[in-house]
Structures are given as structure tokens and as C-alpha cells.
Specification:
Layout lengths: L1 E4 L2 E7 L6 E3 L22 H6 L6 H20 L6 H35 L3 H29 L1 H20 L4 H29 L5 H26 L4 H11 L2 H13 L4 H6 L3 H11 L3 H21 L4 H5 L3 H19 L2 H6 L1 H8 L4 H26 L4 H25 L2 H17 L1 H11 L3 H56 L11 H11 L7 H21 L1
Antiparallel strand pairs: 1-2, 2-3
């Protein structure tokens, strides 16, 4: 219905709950009593609306108003691109992911020159490479506390500073101890940054664009990998003692830029600001992140409503993680399961040790190995740019299933290549592997972690997912070369194919579609799925039913407008 308040037209709409009607603009319901306007229509008090059943008590009211504002704004802004401020902040944050990508890309060339210069054994190389992922676990743990207390941008700055210090220490080292120490410091920075980067982007991104913007992180990782491969190939002809040091030292350029951006140029996320009581600053930040005043108002209400409900329920602690409700338990299972699946397929072992894989496949010179690796980097980066456009259109679940199925096929092609001795199968398998990874499980892993978990446990949940992701990667990196030498390439990739098949079954049974849902809607959605056990039937049936209900409600709201 419509009425006039202080000479302004105010439209109210149904929330989809019986007997509950709420205004689209917060000012249309006042605490000041009746005020006649030019047409003689008065505004109702909030308590009067509650008495007649038009507005329910505070918790329900905030939830309903938040949902109503979101639905109306989605109708209004669904065709608009993200604001320039939102894109700029997301791009700055994603620079942090280039650091990890550069390390993954450059390390394959570094270890070739390092072995020639220092004479390290395979085990010493494995220890050096895996130390980064092992130390990323405590980095992810401390990032949860730092980001919750000091903010997301300061945590990103600290992570980049650690990466800078670690790389410079490695570039000046000549012993295994100092190299592992420097790489461990870098690992702490990687763990902290990897946890906060997608979290930051998800908290500044509007729901309809979150998929595209969060994939900036995965895109940046791939850009960093490509940069590492290109520089590794270009500098591989330098003397071994100088070449690997220069490669590592160049990895300190981007962290220095990232420290400046995080402290000076990047805004803090509105959610963190509101949680800490800085509402005025949050309002200013939202003004730069949102396209319209209506979008800003509804986003503010969404955030305030979600935070108020969580604060009213209980103080968020680790008990919420380890003794969760059924809905939160399903959320954690999905987020952690997909995070582990991302690494159990063997992606980083393939990135780190691609020259070793290609050497066993028949490519004997380091020039050939690094050239093929560089082409693989170009393919991986190109595919991730294409995948970013699919996440908000095609959806998360479908891409994840196709991605994992493609990984299984590519790993079986590798088995065929090693078994037959036909090296073209190995190259084809590697290229198909990075394409399949980049189109789904690569970007969706961190998108799920950032968009599914409730506000109160999001930082802790991201930390847990990142820790297990890095632990899985560390275990594989620590033993890959030794296992390959012991059982051969064919059996190694058959083992990877088996683990990836398990991940595929997990996703098919338990992972639902989350496309288009706001951060504040996720807990309600997963609670319903857990209560009805709908995820065990694939989850997509429940998603389709809820989307139909949502579309009907949105259509009714649009009609009332």
C-alpha cells in the first residue's frame, strides 16, 4: 500500500510472512507520533504497528525489514554493474593473492637452480617447499583474531609485510635452515592473507556480483602463477647461484605495494565497522561501494539486522564451530570439504613439481620443462577469467561438479601417458587438469568459504578452511617427489584420481547451490536444508523450490511497487 509521510510517497510491501507489512524506507515508520502532511495522512508509530500485527517484535522486525529491503533493491539494481569503488577495493585486495601465485609459479624454476647451486636432495627440496604450507596454518589461525580485533585491511597489511620479510631473507640465505626459516615467515603471511583476502571482498561485494568479485582472488593467484612461470623461464639462463636469489627477491615488490594500499587506499569493510560500532564510517564506506542510496540503505539494514540477531543469541566462540547447530554444521561441512578437495586433487604439487613430472614423461632439458610450464600458466589464467563470468550466471554447484569430473579424466589421461610412454598424453593431461581446476574448484573454494558462513563465525570458519586447505597441500608437497620416485607417475596420478573421485561424490551428495543469496540469508537456507535432509538428494531440488518462492515474492513486491 502507499501513503504520504511529510509530503513524500512511501511504499510498503509484504515480507512473505503472514500479517507482516514493512516500509521500504526506514523513515516511513517513525517514533515521533502522528504527523499530518499536505494530504492529511499520518504516519503510524512503531508500537502502534506492532499492536495491530503489522510489525513484529525487534528480532523478527529487523529480519523482515532486512529481507524486504534486499528484495526491493535487488529488483532495482539487478542490472547494474558493481560500483567503481567496489571494483577498486576488490582489485586492491586481490593483489594479495598474487603473492601466493608468484610463489607457486616461481618455485619450480627456483628449485632447479637451487639444486644445481646448493646440491640439495629431493627430501631437502620437499622440506623447503612444504614449509610454506605448514606455516600457513598458524598464519590462518592468527588472522582470525587479528582481523576480528584490528580489521581486515590491517591484517592484509601485516600479511604482506611478512611475505616481504620472508622473501628477502630467503634471497640472502645460503643454508637450508635460513631458507626454511624465510619460507616459514612467508608461509605465515600467505596463511593470513589467503584467509582474509576473499573474506574482505565478500564483505564489500553486493550479492548479485559477489561471485565475480570474489573470483578476483583466484584470478590474481593465476596471474601471479603466470608471472612466476614467465620470470622463471626468462631468468633460467642466469648463473644458478645468482638466478634463484633474484627470482625470490623480485617477489618482494608486490608485497611492498600491498602494504601501502592496505593502510592508505583500501576502505575497511562495512560489516566489521558496524560490528565495532563505527556506524558513521560504515555509512561513508557504503556510499562508495553502492550504486544507489536505496542499495546503501538496504545493505546497512541487512548488516545491522544480522549482527543484532547474532549478538542477541549468544557470544560467538569456538563452541559455535565445534558444537554447531544442524545448519551451521552443514555449512562447515561444505566449506571445509570443498577446501580440502581443492588441494587433494594435487594442484599445487603439479604447480610446484611440473618440471619433475615432465622430466619423467620424457622432456629432459629444463628449457623444455619450463616452456611447457609457462604455456600451462597462460592457459590456467585465461580459463579463470572465463570462469568468473559463469559463477553468477551458471551457478556454483554445476561448475564444481563439471570441474571435479574433468580433473578425474585429466588425471586418468596422465596415467595413460606414463603407462604408454607417449608424452603427448602427459602434456594434454596437464593442460586439461589446469583448465578443469580453474573453471570450478579453484575459484569456488574461496567463494564458498566467504559467502556461506554467518557473520559471527566467518573469520573463524575461513581460518579453519584455510588451515585444512594448507595442511592438505603441505602433506602432498612434502611427499610428492618421493612417492613419484617410489611408485612411478602412473600410480601417483591414479591415487590423485581416486581422491578426486571421492570429492566428486561428496559434492554431488552434500553441496547445494548458493547463487544469488545474500550473506544474511545463508544460515536460514542451510538450516532448512539440514532440517529436511534435502542436500542428500543433491540440494538442487530444494534450491529450485526456494528460488521459485523467492521469484514469486519478488514479482508480488514488484507489482505492489
Amino acid at each position: 500500500y502507499q501513503r504520504r509521510v511529510r509530503g513524500e510517497s512511501t511504499t510498503c510491501m509484504a515480507t512473505g510472512q503472514a500479517g507482516t507489512f514493512l516500509p521500504l524506507e526506514d523513515k516511513s515508520v517513525t517514533d515521533e507520533g502522528p504527523e499530518a502532511d499536505t494530504q492529511g495522512t499520518h504516519a503510524l508509530k512503531k508500537d502502534e504497528l506492532q499492536e495491530v500485527g503489522l510489525v513484529s517484535p525487534t528480532s523478527q522486525r529487523e529480519r523482515s525489514r532486512s529481507r524486504s529491503g534486499s528484495a526491493a533493491v535487488e529488483l532495482e539494481t539487478s542490472g547494474l554493474p558493481p560500483s567503481r569503488g567496489c571494483i577498486r577495493a576488490a582489485m586492491c585486495a586481490s593483489l594479495n593473492s598474487i603473492l601466493l601465485g608468484y610463489d607457486i609459479g616461481i618455485i619450480s624454476a627456483v628449485i632447479i637452480l637451487m639444486k644445481a647451486d646448493l646440491g640439495f636432495s629431493n627430501f631437502q627440496i620437499e622440506l623447503y617447499v612444504s614449509s610454506l604450507n605448514l606455516m600457513a596454518i598458524p598464519g590462518a589461525i592468527i588472522s582470525s583474531h587479528i582481523s576480528d580485533s584490528l580489521g581486515r585491511t590491517r591484517t592484509l597489511a601485516a600479511a604482506s609485510l611478512l611475505f616481504l620479510v620472508g622473501n628477502l631473507l630467503m634471497a640472502m640465505s645460503s643454508s637450508l635452515f635460513l631458507l626454511v626459516l624465510g619460507r616459514s615467515i612467508t608461509g605465515i603471511g600467505v596463511g593470513a592473507g589467503l584467509s582474509i583476502d576473499p573474506l574482505y571482498i565478500s564483505e564489500i561485494a553486493p550479492p548479485m556480483h559477489r561471485g565475480k568479485l570474489v573470483t578476483f582472488s583466484e584470478t590474481s593467484i593465476n596471474i601471479g602463477i603466470l608471472l612466476g612461470y614467465v620470470l622463471g623461464f626468462a631468468l633460467s639462463g642466469l648463473p644458478a647461484a645468482f638466478g634463484w636469489r633474484l627470482m625470490l627477491a623480485l617477489g618482494g615488490v608486490i608485497p611492498a605495494v600491498m602494504v601501502y594500499l592496505a593502510l592508505v587506499a583500501m576502505p575497511e569493510t562495512p560489516r566489521w565497522l558496524i560490528q565495532k560500532g563505527f556506524t558513521d564510517r560504515a555509512d561513508q564506506v557504503l556510499g562508495t561501494l553502492c550504486n544507489t542510496e536505496a542499495e546503501k540503505t538496504a545493505t546497512m539494514l541487512d548488516i545491522e539486522g544480522a549482527i543484532a540477531e547474532e549478538a542477541a543469541g549468544a557470544t560467538v566462540s569456538w563452541k559455535t564451530i565445534f558444537s554447531p547447530t544442524p545448519g551451521v554444521r552443514l555449512m562447515l561441512a561444505v566449506v571445509i570439504g570443498v577446501a580440502v578437495s581443492q588441494q587433494s586433487c594435487g594442484i599445487e604439487a603439479l604447480m610446484y613439481y611440473s618440471p619433475s613430472i615432465l622430466k619423467e614423461a620424457g622432456f629432459k632439458t629444463s628449457g623444455e620443462q619450463l616452456a611447457i610450464t609457462m604455456v600451462m600458466g597462460f592457459i590456467k589464467t585465461g580459463v579463470i577469467l572465463f570462469a568468473a563470468a559463469l559463477l553468477d550466471g551458471y551457478g556454483r554447484r554445476g561448475l564444481l561438479l563439471w570441474s571435479l569430473a574433468g580433473l578425474v579424466v585429466s588425471e586418468l589421461i596422465e596415467v595413460l601417458g606414463f603407462s604408454s610412454g607417449i608424452s603427448v598424453f602427459n602434456v594434454l593431461g596437464l593442460f586439461m587438469f589446469v583448465i578443469s581446476f580453474s573453471v570450478g574448484v579453484g575459484p569456488i573454494c574461496w567463494l564458498f568459504a566467504s559467502e556461506i558462513l554467518p557473520t559471527g563465525i566467518r573469520a573463524k570458519g575461513m581460518m579453519l578452511a584455510c588451515s585444512l586447505n594448507r595442511l592438505t597441500s603441505a602433506i602432498i608437497a612434502l611427499g610428492f617427489v618421493s612417492v613419484q620416485d617410489e611408485i612411478g607417475g602412473a600410480m601417483t596420478f591414479l591415487l590423485f584420481a581416486t581422491m578426486t573421485s571421492v570429492s566428486l561424490v561428496f559434492v554431488y551428495l552434500l553441496v547445494p547451490e548458493t547463487k544469488g543469496k545474500t550473506l544474511e540469508e545463508m544460515e536460514e537456507y542451510f538450516s532448512e536444508l539440514a532440517a529436511n535432509n534435502k542436500c542428500l538428494n543433491g540440494g538442487h531440488q530444494a534450491q529450485r523450490a526456494m528460488e521459485r518462492n523467492r521469484s514469486d515474492s519478488a514479482a508480488d513486491a514488484h507489482g505492489s511497487l
